[in-house]
Amino acid sequence: MTGRLWPRGLRARLSLTFVLVTVLGAAAAAWSSAGSASTALVTSTQRRLTESIAGQIGATTPQLTYPPDQAALDRLRAAVGANTLVTYRDLRSADGAETGLVTEALHTAVRTRDRLVTQRVTASGRPWLLIGTPIVITGPDGARTPSGIEVYAVRDLTGVERQVDDLAWSAAGTAALALPPAVLLALLAARSVLRPVRELRDTARRLAAGDLAARSPPQGADELAELTVTVNEMAESLQTSMAAMRRMQADARRFAADVSHELRTPLSTLTAVMEVLATAAAEMEADARESAQMAITETHRLVRLVEDLMEVSRFDAGTARLRLEEVEVGNAVRDCLRARGWLDQVDLAAPEEIPLRLDPRRLDVIVANLVGNALRHGGPPVRVSVSATREQVRIEVGDGGPGLPEHVLPHVFERFYKADAARVRTPGSGLGLAIALENARLHGGDLTAGNASGGGARFVLRLPRKREDG
Amino acid sequence: MRRIWPVVAVLVLGSCGVRPSGVTDAGRAPTGVAHGVTLYFVDAHERLRPQFRRTYRLGTVPEAVSLLLFGVGDSDLHTEIASVAGPRILATTGPGLIQLRVPLALREVTPLGIDQIVCTALGVHVQSGGSRRTRVQVRFTLSTHESEKRRTCPLIR
Predict the structure, then answer these.
(1) Do residue B156 and residue A140 have CB atoms under 8 angstroms apart?
(2) φ, ψ (nearest 5 deg) of residue A176
(3) Closest chain A residue to B64 measured between Cα atoms?
(4) What is the per-residue pLDDT across A84-117, written as a single tens digit (0 to 9) for each?
(5) Fewer CB within 10 Å, N- or C-terminus of chain A?
């Protein structure tokens, strides 16, 4: 689940970052250009207005009576235009309601600086440009002295403001325009980055699933390509060592199989000789008879061991085959016990009829092994119970002995495992439980070992009622 | 991540509108008012001398030159420009140059007389806000190369 969410998260994060950066960049660029454009716009408008006023004043003044009377001031004011205030000492000529906007700071600047000054103000939501200037007297030698005439003009900047607003909106529009290509590019970039990541993930999954030949071709020369190469190298060395290990395992198994096979022929001869020896044993001396008996027992054990080894080899080689037949489980178990003469030592509880398709020979091997162990190592009473649910058949073998020690439990199904190191001479081959487990698994079932709550070992064989391939 | 968008909006909308400003300088104050006009005449030692005429206004360059051509009046100064009847002066002010068309032939003025005209014209030009480096071209009635000369006033540098 996380494996599928992760690349999506990465893509989303990559795309989001890319889009954010692009749009922010576009917005910053658009904003800054709009900002400088509007500053330039305001500046040029201001310059135009002040130059026009200075020009109008300059064109009028040579014809202006000096010192001026009220009529002269009115003439000058009319020349400058609407919203203009002209003062000379106590005389004052004003036009327009907006002349009241002229600030004290502007008045002071005009009186003290002898320069043309401007100030932007906002009144009743509209921007205004205040222009103030004294008129100076220039002598023929160029000396400038104040004349005492001051001109104040108020000009509306609403038109400029509208242009500036348009600029800002077009900047926002430009930034917004960058969004779709940014998304597209982000998706493309994310894809180009994520494709190798996804390929690498698929390769890693195939490796994890056991396909050691899985590789992903490295593309380009970036960090991802390096990672791909590294993963490929890792897979390569893994494959090599796995192959070596398998080869060694196969060799070992084949050796065991060969050995047991080679032993069979001399053993059958030996068995025949032993049978002859057994018939002759009755006429022997007591100690010679004992030796002969021992040789016969050990030979039987050897035959059993070789047979078990061959059985294990078949499991290892995967050549063990099931011969399925329809049997009644309770009867099969009873037949197994009866064949070995255990019916009077074992409590069998098989209350219902359970038909099941299984390999009767293998079931016999399992039951015989479990019951044999219980009789040999555990204590009486030995109980075998057969029960069934809808999914599985359950055969439980328990005894009244001391049970299995905790440290033994994990190892009981291992080959040649001896619970008690001192008890080497047991009649079993040491392969019985391993073969029983393999047989159970061959049926698609399972065999587990444990201890009953009241003491005593308990082995449970579970066989599925409906096999996947049956 | 989500906190970025208001910032972007503020940045974009922040550039909107015309913001108020403090008082900023916007250039030289206009000029041009004057108590009167200054004309230039010649004294006994053949030197240019300014003479102030209280006209209560500066007037234009042609007006001042007309006044000059009208004569010195009652004074110890004299003019070196022949008097002409009904003087009509045309003045064209271009960048860095004032072209004066005077109803005089070259022989009717001395070089000092030309200086009188140039200084008077340039004086008015400077007083009405013009540059002192402006040149004056005095064009006479009869064609002469003196008409093409670009002159300056020795008193106004």
Answers:
(1) yes
(2) -65, -35
(3) A62
(4) 999 998 999 988 878 888 888 999 999 888 899 9
(5) N
Is the pLDDT at B15 greater than 60? The verdict is no
Compute the distance between CA of residue A106 and CA of residue B34 in angstroms, rounded to an integer. Answer: 25
What tokens does A84 get?
Answer: 């203009």
Task: State the average pLDDT over residues A232-253.
Answer: 89
Set of chain A residues whose Cβ sits within 8 Å of the Cβ of B20 = 119-122, 127
Helix-strand-coil split of chain A, %, nearest 5: 60, 20, 25
H-helix or E-strand containing B28? strand B24-28
User: What is the average per-residue pLDDT within A431-450?
Assistant: 88
Which tokens hold the place of A122? 């906002």
A382 with A399: CB under 8 angstroms?
Answer: yes
Rounded Cα distance, A85 and B27, in Å: 19
**Which residue bears the tokens 């011969």?**
A323
Look at A137 and B19 and tell me if their CB atoms are within 8 Å. Answer: no
At A312, give phi and psi (nearest 5°): -60, -40
The string of pLDDT tens digits covering residues B113-132 is 999 999 999 999 999 888 88
Q: Is the peptide bond before A67 cis (omega within 30 degrees of 0)?
A: yes
Closest by Cβ to A62, choosing from B4, B11, B57: B57
Name the nearest CA neighbour of A149 among A15, A233, A58. Answer: A58
Integer-rounded Cα Rg, in Å, for chain A is: 54
Which backbone phi and psi does A257 adopt, to 5 degrees?
A: -60, -45
d(CA A459, CA B105): 146
Could you tell me how many residues make up chain A? 470
* Rounded CA separation A120/A50 (Å): 12
B36-83 pLDDT, tens digit per residue, is: 999 999 998 999 999 999 999 899 999 999 888 888 877 788 888 888
Token representation of residue A125: 């939501």
Counting every residue written for chain B, the total comes to: 157
CA distances for B91 relative to A2, B64, B119, angstroms: 92, 11, 14
| Residue listed under structure tokens 């005492």 | A148
**Residue A267, helix vs strand vs coil:** helix
CB pairs under 8 A between A and B: 170
Name chain A contacts of B123, Cβ cutoff 8 Å: 140
**Strands A382-388 and A346-349, bridge-based pairing:** parallel
CA dihedral B61, B64, B68, B72 (to 10 degrees): -160
Nearest residue in chain A measured CA to CA from B119 = A140
The domain ranges of chain B are 33-148
Alpha helices of A282-325 — where are they, by DSSP H? 286-317
Alpha carbon distance A385, A203 (integer Å): 49
Q: Structure tokens of B69?
A: 């051509």
Angle, nearest 10°, between helix axes A432-442 and A286-317?
30
State both tokens at A205. 């999954």
Instruction: Give the 3-state secondary structure of B72-96.
Output: CCCCCCECCECCCCCCCCEEEEECC
Nearest to A332 by CA among A391, A386, A390: A386
How is residue A267 written in tokens? 């053993």
Domains of chain A: 2-179 (3.30.450), 212-320 (1.10.287.130), 325-464 (3.30.565.10)
Q: How far is CA A91 from the centre of its chain?
A: 86
* Residue A221 parent element (H or E): none
